[in-house]
Queue: 4 jobs
Job 1
Amino acid sequence: MRMVDLIHKKRSGEALNEQEIQFIVGGYTRGDIPDYQMSALLMAIYFNGMTGEEISSLTLAMAGSGEMIDLSAISGVKVDKHSTGGVGDKISLIVGPIVASLGIPVAKMSGRGLGHTGGTVDKLESIPGFQIELTKEAFFEAVNANKIAIVGQSGNLAPADKKMYALRDVTATVDSIPLIASSIMSKKIASGADAIVLDVKIGSGAFMKTVDDARVLARTMVNIGQSLNRNTIAMITDMEQPLGREIGNANEIRESIEVLRGTGDKELTEVAVSVASYMSILGKVFETFEEAQAAIRDIVANGKALETFKRFVASQGGDPNVVDHPELLPTAQYHFDVIAAKDGFVNQIDAEQIGIAAMLLGAGRAKKEDQIDYAVGLTLNKKIGDIVKAGESICTMHANRQDVAEVEAMIHEAYRIESTKPADVQLIYDVIV
Ligand code: URA
């Protein structure tokens, strides 16, 4: 087989077969196929798309390029959850303890944040003592004992995807639905879950900007999951504005605790309860969404979800007292308010801009090597639809420095305040099964 012939085949609009895809992914991962040939192939895929069979073969080939985690030492149906990424997205921190309280094992590998989006692992590391690196044995033991453990992704998880993603980033081939879908699903398949709930975000802070594009991506990923015998559901949820009110690390832990206590942001709670409901259906605890939703609200109201969160934190070396004493979490030195210049209603909050503003304060990374400051971040005091009076605070900046004028200007730009009330925000646009 020669790579040049396969590029020609794909360029001509023909489908590649499983052996050809294995040859390409294996050869590229080993370094036998150079970047310039892989770039040409990615561009041909970008323009000509892929069939369902090609996408499944690509997913399996990328998953199999590194370690395939075997979770069989953990009993029960292992249900994973994945978000396509957003700003203020702390759903994993909330749904993990909820579904674990229902007896569903959560053996989760999560990523770090990059650019305007945050990462679950960074947020957890803001809890004093929390360890995100466990040996495989300790990971399995923690899940068997507490039904939940969350660790960092192994360096050898789908290395082909890592290499291809870096190449896509510099060849303008990231926003291709077959490539995004296979990239995400390869890591989920390699992580070993039996079933997967996908949270596909749309809006200003997300990869997908329209519901139609998000539906195609969601359908493509659900088809991959089903074709590889993983029961998969995709929800399409809003990322037009940040999720919840806190953006950062320690402050997102605080907000997650509030939701687990039953006193958190309403919209964030709604999305979390829905994601947890679908996870518990895939985990075969409930049959209907309504049944699941009611039980999940109970598990929050009776304190069980919060208790599970405490046990989970303690089992990974973290200080569980942060739950009742959030002041034990890192706190910023300065708090500055961003003041509304006029009366009106908040019509828009550009999630990407807000994510970048938080990153500039130090809550995120511009480059992989950057250090995070867990204490800093933003609190959105006003969200879409809220009434604002001139002089009121729309957002609070938590900072460890005083020169925040650039960040403040970005936040002003991200907020659009108009005299008319906008339509109600839709939280969940569709569910693809
Ligand atoms: N997230 C991924 O893991 N891969 C993509 O291609 C896009 C988003």
Note: The radius of gyration is 22 Å.
Job 2
Amino acid sequence: MNAVPRPQPPPAQGSRLAALNDWVDQVAALTKPDRIHWCDGSEAEYRDLVAGMLADGTLVELNQDTHPGCYLHRSDPQDVARVEHLTFVCTRERDDAGPNNHWMAPAQAHETIDRLFDGCMRGRTLYVVPYCMGPIDSPLARCGVEITDSPYVVANMRLMTRMGAAALARIEREGAQGKAFVRGLHSTGELDPDRRFIMHFPEELAIKSYGSGYGGNALLGKKCHALRIASWQARQEGWLAEHMLILGLEDPQGETHYIAAAFPSACGKTNLAMLIPPEGYRALGWKVWTVGDDICWMRPGTDGRLWAINPEAGYFGVAPGTSARTNPNALATIQRDTIYTNVAVTDDGQPWWEGLDDRVPALDWQGRPYDPANGPAAHPNSRFTVAAMQCPSWSPRAEDPQGVPISAIVFGGRRSSVMPLVFEARDWTHGVRVGAAMGSETTAAATGAVGVMRRDPMAMKPFCGYHFGDYFAHWLSFDRPGAKLPKIFHVNWFRKGDDGRFLWPGFGENMRVLEWMVARIRGTAAAVDSPIGLLPEAGAIVSPACSREDVERVLQVDAAGLPQEQTEIAQHLQGFRPRLPSPLV
Ligand code: GDP
Ligand code: PGA
Ligand code: MN
Ligand code: MN
């Protein structure tokens, strides 16, 4: 029988999984790449990718004496952050995506974005990137394959995930048992903001992203898979996929309490995850271990506790503000083998950003001679990508396939007024309400205005792959017989005085708040009831870096601002009717 020959790209190496090979063939037929490369995740492959990017200018070498293995990528100036207005959740039923997501019907979404993908890889290499989110042998881990035409994305995926041969082997093994992997298709396209979409198809376990190379839009294992698709799967399967750091707080008795904390993007997760306790605490034996800095997957164990893994293997951290004073662990982590994106450069080729030190950079993030008239030298959302295990505080338990048991969940946002430094929810249901009511001022991590207060439930507004009403109900469902749920707290490191300065010193000093939480968990600290929840007793939290008046102010709820806060929260929650669960009405 004579089949009509159809133009075929050069033969691929392929996998042992027909479903994967067929999908790669289909994508190649649509995107028409010159070459196909199946990534094995090896060191040699990474070196080749870097060499290619240095040759074509995608990467610039930084000072190899001070920063060995470090490179700088300058993105398109119009492609520097997540694009929430171009991000869609494409469920069959519109209501399933909820008022918290932009929605498009799946057929229309595929058609719209496939038109952009048609022929977009001509002259380019199609990379097949198998990855595993979570320790490769963990029952909580999930796999995906990202197809991309961006070597920058491949290199970042190698730092951020377990990428390559081991992931492919797991995908093949699971595929043979009928278990699907998440399919992510990505192209940088023309980097035209008018030809850009980030589409999610939770019912198909599929993602399509076109027109951006920025981390949150293009590293599909991260926000697209590990939060939007995973949150959908988690609801079906009885677990949680959350925008949370995970840290282990070791006390002087040698007991480690694991804490998960959800703050919106650029509101302090990476810093808290890598906290170094003040000297006095260190002398007593307190230590913080970093399990994860952005995403947490957790499920109830047979003991009734929530067990959590960090699905990622690297950090994609905010550069500005990172310094030897604020986050020495991060600074130590990024001295070598790091990809910097959109930072400034000193005259001797070192990476630089606002808040690092008092040197004056030579070039700004766009590669222009630095001129303060052009704004900050580093883009406010400039980032570093680096392997997690390079962090001095990296927890060995980050590789534990069973995860770590969570003792406390912390919600928090960037609130210049009203919200106090810390309070505790009265119980799980109240804690879910506190999370659902969360507000925060917007940051440079997403395009749009910065510093605008908005509601961001559980820091998941941009990341929940389904209706928030269903999501809150799912959270409430964990409170059932036999459950040993963590305590829930709310923090605010960003309360400001009338003069506009932060009242609380933050960073390492946040240890004092963590200590109070541990004391509450152990039952050794009292608390005072208030309209919003349980507050520390007067004098329970003090800091040598904060005046007595400032501490007093920061620990208090702003009574004058509370009525409006409560009105806003009520209005916000009404927006999820009729799916709003009754305990939150
Ligand atoms: P993430 O995006 O949630 O991981 O947030 P980061 O930890 O990267 O922090 C984002 C920005 O907030 C950086 O510029 C930090 O320096 C700053 N930041 C983090 N923690 C604190 C804090 O406790 N107090 C203050 N004032 N700023 C903080
Ligand atoms: P972040 O991660 O939370 O560390 O800022 C990136 C993002 O959320 O866009
Ligand atoms: Mn994040
Ligand atoms: Mn971070």
Note: The pocket of guanosine-5'-diphosphate (ligand 1) is lined by residues 263, 265-271, 293, 317-318, 320-321, 326, 493-494, 502, 506-507, 510 (CB under 6 Å).
Job 3
Amino acid sequence: MAIISSKQPAADGEQPPRARKKNTPKPLATPEPAVLADGDSELLQAEIATSEEKLQEESLRPSSIQEYIGQKELKGVLDIAIQAAKVRGESLDHLLLYGPPGLGKTTMSLILATEMGVNCKITAAPALERPRDIVGILMGLQPGDILFIDEIHRLPRMTEEILYPAMEDFRLDITVGKGTTAKIRSIPLPKFTLVGATTKVGSLTAPLRDRFGLVQKLRFYEVDDLTLIVQRTAEILSMSVTTEGAAEVARRARGTPRIANRLLKRVRDYAQVKGHPVIDEPIASAAMEIYNVDPLGLDWVDRLLLTTMAEQFNGGPVGLEALAASTGEDSHTIEEVYEPYLLQIGYLQRTPRGRVVTMAARKHLGLKGGNDGGDQLSILG
Ligand code: ADE
């Protein structure tokens, strides 16, 4: 399988190498990052992937469905789709993968290409600004190839409209000429599979979403699966880690392999400096303490958000903008970076009237009082 990554696709139709072997993709066009606070909190943000980290991620990627840990339901669905497409000798249906960042959407796309024995062309919506960017890529595809578009919810309208006939009828409609003499020329395309990835499925237009035969969600990973991922990474990086040490890292990784692997590297630094050849639970836990990552993977911004809601807004409901103003955090960052995990672990609830901090969060932070369901029970009791 060749992996071809595009930052700026050539205007005149880039010709990807056809050799079907595994190679290393160049870095993707960098999406606009959410605005983040300085300091240790970046350790826990799945969005931030430095180019060095991206390169290392390549070497840690599982390369087959068997090797891929977790996401059982997704793997089940894709396994069937692969087998069916192979039996029929067809390309895979277009696939939309959605879910929080760092859960393995790109990895899954690369695995699909390997399993199907085709190339995977990787790009991202911000690199497809001009219509000719997508035209060049589409014209360079071979039968069966996978085209992976990250952040697909950010496609410009014209690019998206070029994709409609390409996805539906494998046809490129190009307007030739201008004004009243303009004509549409149709160019046939090879049958290919579009894999779109997004963290914001609700931001996709309905016509684009409807053109995907399969729409699948990636979920936060269970601690058991993350423990296995940490152990696998440790082995690849020739690190010695006990099961308990791996579990300690996994528990603090916010359900996200990218974060787990990042934490593991920080723990390795700590263990090395302290002269511990083996990473066990006490070492992993001590390392996490100095990086300000608490036993559930919360950092100081998470704690600030929850504490502010509890103490300044009597537990909520509080509007996003009010919370942003009170904490000095950017509202998009709160919504896209912090909230998903706090919602997942049941520390925050979103109600029509605003965000509410839960009893579980209060207990974790050692805070009293509040007005959510749990508190009402205690009042009644
Ligand atoms: N490394 C990162 N994510 C992984 C996964 N889901 N399975 C195995 N190794 C991984």
Note: The chain has a mean pLDDT of 88.
Job 4
Amino acid sequence: PTFLKVKANKLANPFFVGMAVKANQLDSGSKYDGILKNEFSSISAEYEMKMNPISISSGVYNWTAADKIVAYGNANGINVHGHALVWHVAVPNWLTNFSGTDAEFAAEVKKYITDVVTHYAGKVKSWDVVNEAVDDASGNLRNTIFLQRMGPNYIKDCFKWARDAANAAGDTNLLLFYNDYATSTNIAKQNKMFSIVDDLKASNLIDGIGYQMHNTYLSPTKTQIETDINRAVAKGLKIHVSELDIQVNPANDISSFTNERRLAQKEKYKEIVKIYNAIPAANKYALTVWGMKDNESWIPYSTDLNHAGNDWPLLYDSNFALKSAHTGFLEGLD
Ligand code: G3I
């Protein structure tokens, strides 16, 4: 078979083909190990490089799983993207229940960002500094513990702390990303994201935007995606399709993976890869798929989505067999 990264590396303007991984998948000789080495040129941690698994208490860290993932990438010439320094869903209990002042809370966030960026300096090529800061309904800043305790400037503070830590560690090439979802279909959210991005860019604190792209076989449309992404291209930002998966059962109207949805999914992967491949070289970074095989995707088990366990969103099936989606990805690289 043709391998994804082999074809991507032959492009006039190559980009990383990424996969979200778990540390326990990376043992030498595992099925994941073989596929990752053949097909992927970048990895993100699906969970283990977030704040809650790493941060035990103030200044106390559990690096084990994250170190394993980073070491695997570094040992195998695979790019490592850091996901994510600050995210309201990944706040450890000790920080959620922090009884100190707001200034002391901010100092804890600064210490965390500084320590993590320093720990992985030169080993992790990019970080999602802040993830999902924009509220879906209002298009304003999401009312998270960070906004409540640090105020609306918290995003800029976090990017500055990350930039300062990287520069202090000599990692002047570290790429800092803002990461979010559904900006192509939610224009208020898209506009708010770009106002945040413009403010960061004015202070040279941001290098790229992560478009999660938890899409469906129907949405967003090609035009919606291109309109959104072209705004980032125009600002000279790197673009990371950071968490791509394609639901085929968003309305929970099928109980098995029908051929009609299989082919629709193939076409949607092809469409998204083609859109990404068409952006200018200067804006390319990585296109990352959020997991390897269908039965390990977050989607069927998500309480936010009404899938009742039925969806097949990724490139490999539960037996690691290639799906038509994988063929669609390859065709998108033509
Ligand atoms: O492994 C631990 C286990 O040791 C512990 O006992 C158990 C009890 O909480 O948790 C286990 O961790 C789970 C982890 O996935 C394992 O991979 C967490 O509960 C569970 O919350 C976590 O879910 C992840 C979720 O983010 C929250 O961090 C999903 O795998 C992951 O796909 C999902 O990814 C997010 C992106 O980071 C941001 N964009 C949306 C995307 C989907 O929600």
Note: The CA atoms of residues 31 and 320 lie 8 Å apart.
